[in-house]
Amino acid sequence: MKHSSSGGLVYSTDSGRMCPDCRHPMVSCQCKAASAKPVGDGNVRVSRETKGRAGKGVTVVRGLPLDAAALAALGKQLRTACGSGGTAKDGTLEIQGDHVERVMELLKAQGFSVKRSGG
Questions:
Q1: Which of 25, 27, 63, 79 is the Cys-Cys partner for 40 at CB 3.0 to 4.6 Å?
Q2: Is the pLDDT score of 37 beyond 60?
Q3: pTM of this prediction?
Q4: Would you tell me how many other CB atoms lie within 10 Å of the CB of residue 72?
């Protein structure tokens, strides 16, 4: 378990990330910190990255204006459509493999304004 500098629990192996304000698991947090949506410019950015992954490429989706539950659900849809694994963490989606074009098409079909970033 990790503790913040103020002495509060920030992560538990049983329930994951903890809310810094109410000290409840983020999935059951009722305070304002959990309901805040990430602020962006309205564009969803899709890129392919290999840095820090031993040369393995992942498709990264940033800038989705969704809360954690909706982000996880969208991540599941995208992973299923691409036939690969991945994760939703810190407001971004990571999908294993190079699926930039497919992910962009799927997000455009759902009404998001999508841009490709990176090379």
A1: 63
A2: no
A3: 0.65
A4: 15
